[in-house]
Amino acid sequence: MSTTRHLDLGCGPVPRNPYQRDELFGVDIAPPAHTPGCVLQRGNLTLEPIPFETSQFDSVSAFDFLEHVPRVLPTADGGATRFPFIELMNEISRVLRPGGLLYALTPCYPSREAFQDPTHVNIITDRTHLYFTGTSPLARMYGFNGQFVLRRADWVVPRDAVDARAVLSLHQRFRRFNYRRKGQLSHLRWEFECSKPA
CA 94, CA 186: separation in Å to the nearest integer? Predict the structure, then answer.
């Protein structure tokens, strides 16, 4: 059986491995000097491609990261615009193997968590996934060339969604129901499958 590999984007000091892959890699703008059991790379994913080769990973995660990636920036010469969020989604598709999975948790509109942090510049809604999934993703008009199939896009309690494979306990299901009833769910979970040809 071949070794499986996972990449955590914006990993900070504690890279996550929600599918429990054999090897763990992380990318961060300021990674720690050393994290046992993980290969870390420095990278500013707003300005640079993901610093790994094509089709290297069985899964990629982004925990509380996508909301920090700007949607629009001027080019270096100021003569045009570029779309860093679209570019990042292209990069995620590029580094995933065919059938690989993207797992992301992000604060979502209309929760206050989506807006309260002044570094949140990319507000995700419960329909943003339509720009990246399906046979005619809406982001094609902005240069998106990846291929993702939606596995799920749902509201979650973040601490109950760290493990992508976990089945919620009765207590966790009740907590999510109670948060939903009170309008306190703050995070959306995306799970996309990369459907590019082998």
Answer: 29
3-state secondary structure of 42: strand
DSSP state of 51: S
Phi-psi group of 78: left, alpha or beta (phi > 0 → left; psi -120 to 50 → alpha; rest → beta):
left
Residue 67 backbone dihedrals phi, psi, to 5 degrees: -70, -10
Question: Please, which residues bridge with residue 156 across strands?
Answer: 187
Radius of gyration of the chain (CA): 17
**What structural domains and CATH numbers belong to the chain?**
5-194 (3.40.50.150)
For residue 186, the one-letter residue type is: S
For residues 19 and 165, the answer to whether their CB atoms sit within 8 Å is yes
List CB contacts of 154: < 8 A, sequence separation 6 or more.
Answer: 188, 189
User: 10 Å Cβ neighbour count for 83?
Assistant: 18
Backbone phi, psi, residue 84, to 5°:
-55, -35
Question: Which strand (E) or helix (H) includes residue 35?
Answer: none
Tell me the pLDDT tens digit for each residue of 9-68: 999 988 999 999 999 999 999 877 778 889 999 999 999 999 999 999 999 999 999 999
Structure tokens, 68: 């920090």
